[in-house]
Amino acid sequence: MIFELLLIVMIGLIAVAINLKDLVHAVIVLASADVIIALIFLLLAAPDIAITQVAIASGLTSLIFIVAIRKSIRREE
Amino acid sequence: MDTIVKTTARIMFPFILMYGIYITLHGHLTPGGGFPGGVIIATGFALLIIAHKESRVEHTFRQISFIDAKSIAGFGILLLIMFGIFFRLNIIQVEKSLGILGGLTLPSNIFGTIMVATTLVIIVYSIIKE
């Protein structure tokens, strides 16, 4: 039950991230979706993978996205 | 970036570094290890590099010193593997009899952390100076 609920919330967050026009806000929403994936890993009894998922997908990838946005334009269209 | 981001990055940097070192040094007893600790340390450096101007940060943390640390850690991993082959030791698995020291797992975690952290910091530097 809780897995389906978390997956529905994650898909909703990713849909919000696709539809946002400000790309920095989209990066932040995508990072929170990755935190929910890490929570699912933690509930499946894999804390190693959860730590790595939070550190990479929600930490380092967001910073690299922000660097790429800073070298390009911030608003879509 | 603006003043709030700069001040927050400067205050949070030692705590992020301390958490990464804790994940590494306690990695053979609890979840964690070389790769997550290295990624967390690299995230701290990347936050500092992105928040400030890269010319100010490079005055303290130069890119060439990260390359030096990476080559030293690679030599350490090579030495550890040759040591393990020579004495027929298992460097991947935790030896329960050694308890908190963890045998050869602790030095291999430390060298792996230095490798991962320096590699990711060099990648961030080369992206931002493009």
Straight-line N-to-C gap of chain B = 18 Å
Write down the overall mean pLDDT of chain B: 83
Shape of chain A: flat
Helix amount of chain A: over 70%
Largest sheet composition of chain A: none
Total count of domains of chain B: 1
Broad structural category of chain B: mainly alpha
**Mean pLDDT of chain A, rounded to whole units?**
90
Q: N- to C-terminal separation of chain A?
A: 39 Å
Q: What is the helix tally of chain B?
A: 5
Helix content of chain B: over 70%
Uncertain regions of chain B: pLDDT < 50 for 5+ in a row?
A: none
Return the string of H and E elements of chain A: HHH
Instruction: Give the oligomer, counting copies of the same chain as homo and different chains as hetero.
Output: heterodimer
Radius of gyration of chain A, rounded? 14 Å
Greatest chain-chain contact: A-B, 14 and 18 residues
Beta content of chain B comes to under 5%
Uncertain segments of chain A are none
SSE ordering of chain B: HHHHH
**Estimated radius of gyration of chain B:** 17 Å
Strand content of chain A: under 5%
Structure description:
The complex is a heterodimer of chains A (77) and B (130). Chain A is an all-alpha fold and 77 residues long. Chain A has one domain. Helices cover 83% and strands 0% of the residues of chain A. In chain A, helix 1 runs antiparallel to helix 2 (23-43) and helix 2 runs antiparallel to helix 3. Chain A is flat. Chain A starts with a helix and ends in a 6-residue tail after the last helix. The mean pLDDT of chain A is 90. Chain B has one domain. Chain B is mainly α and 130 residues long. The mean pLDDT of chain B is 83. Helix content of chain B is 73%, strand content 0%. Chains A and B meet through helix 3 of A and helix 2 and helix 5 of B.
